[in-house]
Amino acid sequence: xxxxxxxxxxxxxxxxxxxxxxxxxxxxxxxxxxxxxxxxxxxxxxxxxxxxxxxxxxxxxxxxxxxxxxxxxxxxxxxxxxxxxxxxxxxxxxxxxxxxxxxxxxxxxxxxxxxxxxxxxxxxxxxxxxxxxxxxxxxxxxxxxxxxxxxxxxxxxxxxxxxxxxxxxxxxxxxxxxxxxxxxxxxxxxxxxxxxxxxxxxxxxxxxxxxxxxxxxxxxxxxxxxxxxxxxxxxxxxxxxxxxxxxxxxxxxxxxxxxxxxxxxxxxxxxxxxxxxxxxxxxxxxxxxxxxxxxxxxxxxxxxxxxxxxxxxxxxxxxxxxxxxxxxxxxxxxxxxxxxxxxxxxxxxxxxxxxxxxxxxxxxxxxxxxxxxxxxxxxxxxxxxxxxxxxxxxxxxxxxxxxxxxxxxxxxxxxxxxxxxxxxxxxxxxxxxxxxxxxxxxxxxxxxxxxxxxxxxxxxxxxxxxxxxxxxxxxxxxxxxxxxxxxxxxxxxxxxxxxxxxxxxxxxxxxxxxxxxxxxxxxxxxxxxxxxxxxxxxxxxxxxxxxxxxxxxxxxxxxxxxxxxxx
Length: 567
Prior knowledge:
The chain is of the alpha+beta class. Helix content is 32%, strand content 26%. The protein contains 13 helices and 27 strands. Strands 1, 2, 3, 6, 7, 9, 10 and 11 form an 8-stranded mixed beta sheet that branches. Strands 12-13-14-15-18-20-19 form a 7-stranded mixed barrel. The protein is globular. The protein starts with a helix and ends with a helix. 36% of the residues are buried. The model is unreliable at 1-45 (pLDDT under 50).
């Protein structure tokens, strides 16, 4: 090898003019010594065993006889396997999860934690799948890696996902003291029984991005959801914290900065694609309607590990909040938490008692309220206009309702057959110009019961598919508006619908989103892992029934809206 090195070096140096033989000899000696140092250092420090190549900076080993004299040990938590010096998500079944982009080139390096790097090294078993990265992802292939010390070693499995992977590890819990409903119904109903504190680590990139990110931060979290708390697969509400446990805004997977995030378990959907697709469609409504700021939840798929247990596919959500809506200190954000209506007298009770909740309404912003009468006025007036009167006075709502926003709401609800979002699971943002003067905007939230899925009310199968593609779910306020001057409003609505149908509401686009999300779950390997983790949920890759349903529905909607607006 050294002879070949010298010969190659001589050829290189002789091409250079003005270099004497003595100079060449000196350069060769320096080169040889440097090569010996590098090779020696590489073998001693980086690759202390014979190897046949490297992947992710880790030597690939064909002869594992060097392990025979060492003791194999196990670990319920990651013993020290990192990616770019950040501890990898780990399942106590001795599985490490590594996120990679969905192409054949490996990204980054596996490393050993600082605590172990002086005494341990990483190596991996010879495996043909190292040359077939995307196939390894799709088939849920498990690579074998070893974390080797002088006297012992860990034998671990490495699962490579094409999806971002998020790990949460709890360090402590705090039991929360419940206040009486009469004192603070907001805290009584929505504050969790237990707050958990720990760390969060996120690896990967958003679905359509090649940019890779690693985020490591402190977190406070609790179980979220009313009915879904009863399910084995839990959903979580997250608050990102700094090292002093103060809230800190951080961007995750390119969705923008926020301190508040949600992890939705998607357990109500056997295909795991409805919520993500519906959110994407509303995002396209928001982009198409330049007259109104009407953002919805931003969502990206992640695989999640909680306290060293793999828990499957989730949607990481950035919620609708005052920042997304650009609300100022005078504006109010309301969240509708049920489909029940509340009376004017009940709202007055909330004002008198200084409450931020009167079911179904919850004031989400501002956090601190100085004047409860002013804070409750916009939604109180809105309910009186649209729900507490048999007829709607158009003149009363000209300067209070974003008509194009309500048009979009009806198109969205009908396109996605959003069975749980006509009033419930919606945000109403009141942009207040002066006391008594406001402009209201509707935005959706919690989009799991869409594309034919309905709550079965039993919490056994969680949801049931309604194959009636003619079912009507419209925005209640817009439906009332149509009764005031149906011909003029209907004409504008139909024109808008036809324009959208030529673009993002085309059947091809909607069906394409459903297919793309399904294919992403398959190609990343996440769907296969989800099936094995939650067999009781009847998870399925088959969406042919759903595509057929959506195609029929879009054809029917064209006919329905044509007839409805001409009445």
